[in-house]
Amino acid sequence: MVTLVIKRIGFMIFTMIIVSLILFLLLETELTGDPAARVLGQFSNEEQRELWREQHGYNQPVMVRYVKWLGNFATGDLGESIRFKGPVADVMLPRLWNTAILGFWTFAIMIPLSLTLGVLSGMREGSMLDRSISVFGILTTSVPEFASAVFFSALFVFGLKWLPGTSSMSGGFEFRQLILPVMVLVVYDFGYVARMTRASMAEVMTSQYIRTAVLKGLPYKSVIVKHALRNALIAPFTVIMLQINWLLSGVIVVEFFFAYKGFGALILEASLNNDIALLEACAMVAVFVAVATQTLADIGYTFLNPRIRFS
Amino acid sequence: MKEIETTHPAIHDFKVDMDKGRITRRQFLRYATLLGMSVAGASQMAGFTWPKKAFAAQKRGGVLKFGMLIQEMADPGTYSWTEKSVVARHIVEYLVETGPDNITRPYLAESWEASDDLKSWTFNLRKGVKWSNGDDFNADDVVFNFTRWLDPKTGSSNLGLFDAMLEETGEKDAKGNPVKRMIKNAVQKVDNHTVRLNLKSPVLSIPENLYNYPTAIVHRNFEKDGGDLSKNPVGTGPYTLSEFRVGELAVLKKRKEPYWGGEVFLDEIRFVDLGQDAGAYLAAIASKQVDGIFALDLTTLEAAKNIPGINVSDIPSTQTGVIRMKVTEKPFTDIRVRKALQKTCDAKRQLDIAHRGLGIVAEHHHVAKIHPEYFALPAFKQDIAGAKKLLAEAGYPNGIELTCNVGNTDGVWEQDSVAVLKEDAAKAGINIKMNVMPTAQYWDVWTKAPLSLTTWTHRPLAVMVLGLAYRTGVPWNESSYANPEWDAALTEAESTLDVEKRRAKMEKVEKILQDDAVMIQPFFRSVFTAVRDNVVGFEMHPTRYFRFHKVSLA
Lengths: 311, 554
Hints:
heterodimer; A: mainly alpha; 14 helices; 1% strand; flat; B: alpha+beta; 22 strands
């Protein structure tokens, strides 16, 4: 197991280096266009661009610049944000924290809800409950976030007047402002996890060891809790781990709609403002979280499933 | 308030014009106050009674929350977004104030006088005004600001407004335009509280220019102290900046010292950035998260009108979208191509479709019917056959492909306006490809792109915006238009006091600009905003130069 963890972490670092190289080549070299033009605008003249390249060390060889760039990154020097006029770290960390809060509450509600409904559904495949949950899950998952955000706003903000319309938290943290974004995310995501859980549970319920347990007279509750659940939750575990990654960078729509000052909105702002340093840092963080959650999922999957072993 | 004992001789001529019906009473008030007469004196002369503003009794205290984009606001002299000035306006102040009624009133200058030839303007500064760092406000501050604005290195758009204080150095810039510098002694300190502007040619609009949003007066040590208002918010205004985060929040707190301008009601003003989604602003005001918003988008206008507790304000303005052609970039170096594109425009259709008919039809010269100096040229009509002919003469008998950038900086109506032009232009064989850009990115290219739609805010006098946008070599001349004949015509119009003669001179200004086909400018649009009914004393300003000194909460 220790070897597996070390190998996985090593693979994670290797992936990060490859990604950083791709990111560097995309944003910092002329492979996909002139970085000076990206910062100064497509109609800037060559004189202005050359001055900018000189000032920012862009006339050095690519590998020298990459090593320097990577070194700065590794030592926490993420550069200065053009839009926010300050160090990237100072801008990014509070935004990451805000998205972590949003993600925490989304998970705190979505996971128990989707697992419970998925298990209930999978336990009695084809029943009315199963069909209802499945139809409801498919329905909510197929409605895009921007549509459900409009629908919930119309209902709870303009119609019933129960909830605040935006979530900028400008006066400090207020849980009421979190309700609508969390609601949209939960509704969008729970159906997917519930369906995965259902499928996994349904498969387990038809396996021979469950049939044996039932036939040998074990109480049904005991069969479910002690024998079925552990195996049924392996697949949803991986899916849930992947949702962390989705939550970090996939919440752009929700954060934009509700003016929530999170990491997803920050990525959008960095892109729209050609804020290269901020965009690089955000992308690296998003990739790190993606790779880290994948690694954790792999390790956890192996831990949960003794049939999978790596030597 | 000090009254001016003597009046400019031209005021009497204006009075005659008003009595003969050549100008309205309001226009008389505008001109008389520009020439230094007090509003009270001018009103009395015009027999004009101001309607009493029936505000409910105003309470002290409270926090006003206002939804608006929060951008960096380091240097007031180089601002290019009105929003920045709305926050800064409560910290730093202007020499004069042009109100929602377009009348210019004293502010940091308590009075001013113009010489008979309008070449010398003397501003008497208010005494007893203190900066928030304890220093006295005086003439050195004003001299410092003018010197700074008129130094091309500062990059202030004010260069275009105060051209009469500039001279050519004999050098040319990279674009071949003459490099200018401030004429020695153009701004003169007469004594500690008197400043004189000495112009090379007469300009009537000097006081109104001094409320253009990048003309806020900063402390004389602004640059020595770092040159960043958001980090060192020294001002003469009633508020100070207590919290500031770009893209999130700006919090202004009432200063402890008494304000020279009288009572200020609000304890705190919180500007909250709700992003660029118009729906978020509507949701925030509907759910009482904010008390007002900077702008109401056309897409949310009708919804806002139907929400109880929200007061929607609208005002005709000279805000506009200018689809300008860069005359130094191909194919627009050929006037026939520019004229052809201009001829395809159906301005009325543009206004009806892109702005739901809410505005005034324009005539491609950036002077509006509501500008006092407007001269009515013959109606400009769509001429597809003429456009085709010109295009063929220019060497494009089979049509031409163009790309038009649009940033929707003031709303999606901009994109709609380009879309309508695209449809009309297609009839003449001009195929316009729309390049819809993110707002922030648009401002990177607005002075560089060959063809693009830029929004221009309201200016009370046409000569102000014309000087800013089309005079040769000025920073905001996005079309790179350079026509010495037109420059001279504008300077003449600026310096003519007689209303009839001034209008006659504007005919030349409008005609040359329209004939040179620098722009397609189909309409001037009305502007809208919304505040909740608990906001007392709020007045809509056509330029959205909001100032909450006299606003309170119910």
